[in-house]
Structures are given as C-alpha cells and as structure tokens.
Write a structure and sequence with these properties.
Helix 2 packs antiparallel against helix 3. With 590 residues, this protein is of the alpha+beta class. It has a 4-stranded antiparallel beta sheet. It has 7 helices and 36 strands. A hairpin with an 8-residue loop joins strand 3 and strand 4.
Length: 590
Amino acid sequence: MTAQKDKKTATSSQDGDGKWLDAFYDPVANLYTFTQCMCFGDIHADGELKLVVAHLGTSSKDMKLKVFKGGNLMTENTLIDLPTGVVSFYMDQNMPRTPAIAVASGPHIFVYKNMRPYFKFTLPVLEVNAVEEDLWRQAREEKIDIGVLHEMIEELRQQGIELTPRSIKFLTLDPREMEAFAQIHKYGTLKRQTVITCIATLNKSMAEDDAISCLVIGTEANLIYVLDPEAFTILATMRVPSVPVFMSVNGLFDVEFRIIVTCRNGTIYTLKRGMDSVSSGIELNSQPLAMSRVGKHMIVGCMDNTLRSYTTKGKKHWSIKLQSDITAVGVMDHKQQGFKATVIGLADKTVCIYRDKFLINKFTTPDVVKAILFGRFGREDGSLVMVMKGGGLLVKILKRTATFEDKGIQKGGPPSVQTLKLDVPKKTKLFVDQTIREREHGIVMHRQFMHDLQRLRLNAAKSYAESLMKSENPISNSHTEPLKLNAVVNGIGPTFKLKINLQNTSQSDPVIDMCIGFSYESSLYNIHRKHILCPMLVPGVMYTFETLVDCISDKGISDTIKVFVLKRDKSIPLISANINMPVSEPALVA
C-alpha cells in the first residue's frame, strides 16, 4: 500500500517556473465530472476543507456524490439522476458553523448536512398546454383514436409548443407500440417538469464567507429561481431568452445583486434586483465553453479557441487566441496574496494561468484536464485540484514563496516603452497664480460669466426680433405668403446681371399680387428694372427674375443693394435680402 501511494505522489508534471508542488496524483481515481460539479466545503466544521465531487458515472447509472479528504475517498452517496452542479452554502446560524452541500440533479436539489440527506427541493410544475391536455382527455374518453392523437400532437410540436414528456415519448414510439403506451398512460395526470441546468450561491444579507446564502438555479425552461436557504421557497423568478448554462453571481439579495448568465444561444445576459426578464445581451461569435468572473470582468472561453474578457456593461475588454482547444476554465483567487487570475485547461495537456490577457504561468499535466478548481483544500490555501479526461485526480499546491509576474511572457500587447513616465514640465508661476485666483474669486468669476452670457442671449433675441419686424430674413414667416428669396450677382462690371430666385414654399396654396423692389445708392448704381411684377407663384416652383445693374461711379467703391418682396397695397415687405455688390472693373475705352 505504501509503495502504491509513493507511486501516486511521485508522478509529477513539468513545471518550468517551480511555483507548484505536486501533492497528489491518482491516475485511476475513476472520476468523470466537470468544473461546475466540484466544490470545497468544511462539511464537518473541523477547519479542514474537503473536496466534494459529483461523479457523472455512465450518464445513466452509477452517479455518486464523493467526498475526498486529501487524496483519500471518505464517503460517497448514490444519486438518482445526472448531476449538473454542486455548491457549498450556509443555510443557518447554528454553531458550529457547518455548511450544507446542494446537488442539482434533474428537477431536484438534494441538500446534504454532515453528508447525510437533509432536504429535497423539487422545481414547480410548469403549465401544460390546454390543447395537449384536451387531446389526452379525449383519448381517455375514447372520443379520438390513436392515429388522430398522434397527428394532433405532432402538429402541436411543429407549432413550437412545449410538450410534456409523455407526449414527446409518444411521438418517438413505433406505430405498433403507440396503442399499448396510450392505454397505460392516458389515465394518469399530465405534467410538464423542467430540469436544472446550472446552480450558484448568492449571499442573502451579509458579505462574509460564512454568511447565509441563497441558492440561484437555472432551468431548461429559461427560468432563473432564487431560493430561500431556510424555508426553500422561491424568493424571485426571472426569465432569460434561452436556456442558461453558466452563471456568475455577486452582491447581496437583500441589497443589490447581479446575475450574469451565459445561455445556450451564445449570448450573455445580466440580471439585477427587481428585474423579471431581460431581452438584450452580449452576443458571442462562437459558442461558450465556460465562464468565470475575475474582478469586474467576465472571462469567457469559446469554441473557436479564444479567451475573451467583457465588462459587466457589455463592452469587450480584450480577446486572445489560444494554442489549443479549451477543456476547462477556473478562477484562481488567492486572497492571502490579493491575487486573481484565470486558470485554463487545454487539449494539449497544458494548463495556462492568465492575469488579464497576460500569460503568467504555464505547466503540463499527465492527461487532458476536464475539471479544475482552485481554493483551500485541507489546510492549504493555494490548492489546485484537477480531474483528468481519463478519470485521474491531480492536486497541486502553490508555494508560499511563489510570485507571478508578466515579464513579457505574453507575446504582443503594448510595448514596454508605454510604461515609461513622460517628462511633464513643471507648473509655471502664471498657471499657479491663475489657479489661486480662480480658487479665491470663483463665485465672482462665475457671476460675471453668467451676466455676460445672459447679456449675449438678450442681444441675440433683440437682433432676431428686429430682423423679424423689418422682414430682413430671406425666408418669410407669414402663414399666408410663405416665400423663399435668393439673389445672385453675375459679371465683373461695370454692368452686372442680378438674378432673383423666388419660391412659394406652401404645400398647396398659390401666392398672387407680389412685386419686387430695390433700394440702392443712386449715385453708384442704376437698375434697369426698378420694379418687377411677379406672376402667380405656384407652390414648389422656382421663379427667376433678372435685371441689369450699371455701376455709374469711377471711384472703385461698392455698396449694398437691398431687394424687397412686397404685397400689393402693403408698405411692409414680406421678405428682403441684402446683396453685397463687388467692386466694378473700370470701363474699357475703345
């Protein structure tokens, strides 16, 4: 026996940095599990944490709940259904403080206290479709035959209606077996029961490690339940658009909490206190394999061999390409050193440790890692437990003198020169004096600023009102004659051509009895058509009026010509425009 134990512990994996001690390795432990089916717990309240593993067996039989102390198997309990998650939580304030173990298996949660069965919680029964229930009632009363029953249930399935297990089983049977199946089951009560897909814990009112915790479970019916740890009643129910597969929970149920859910549709959703459902989330380019939370970021491993980081608000932080397929993801939270990182198991028998996107440690294992868990095991705080693809159990212990540094191990990323401090010039005396002045006279400066701002607004309002009164805008503000005016000057002089574009901006009403007039300096200019009558202006049509302007001055100066659009029998123009005339070229002498 001693020789066999020596053989187990002598098997070591390659560790280039020498930061890990090989504590135990059993290649024939015969374990088949995943990361979410492993946890540590002080189940006997003796200060020595044990490893609790939900063994999946052959997926149909031999499912067991195993407890390991060190490398030895202490106890095992038989499970009646396939386990999907194991957590350790405190459900009361009794002394000594002994945690309970909750195992999610099928539609049930089995709670163990001192590794003895304590309580079984069953998910509430879901509502059965009324049409499906009516079909089985008619079959029971022999109002329809088996062929019609099969045809109608198949039509319900094609419509996307969630069926009960009885109807699903009925559709899969051979036509010769349907009659016997219906005769046996049609008299029973029709039920639709969902199953648990993931489980986590949420502290209820205090943030201590041994505080009372609520159970958070995700189901195949797209529902998230929060359970009371004492009465095992449902405290909150939330709905997500798809089936949840991974969950990360933080906060306090009585104060504020956040549940991050990765669903089967490749989307990450965030649920908060008071929410009943969620519709939008973070869409991933590839299906997620695992999710963990490190600090304020979510680390997601995807099937395209990428490791991605997202903020809780959905912003992508970084993404790196790994050398092989991801097989397991865990969180390395070493509280004594204040160190948090992500542990990744790869298909090439490599375990990588990343802090943010930098590779800080790497070692190989005897087999591919399928489940990984870091925490306090026994009395060692830095224990790393790994379950191999072949069923082996490997335990490593982090050396107390080990330190992790990202000394350029990770290729890429920002260059090292970005970490150099810039030579920022010192603050000048003028800057310091200005800062002191603003600090001492801040109220006076703010009042002066607000006074000038209000004066500016008043002047702008006066100018705008004056322009409206004098009709100096190129667009009319009249509701009966909505017009738009535009004027263009062509030529270099001394004779110019003045083009006036006039448009009726009304939707359907024409404008009549309009004329165009000019105001100019008669000593500088002479306009051939001083008064232009406008025809009826049809809505939406641009009308162009032209006239010649002669510059009769030889002083080389220019002035402004004002164009007015007037209504017959009215002295106030509707709209006006100012034309800045260019300086005229001198007349050529023949």
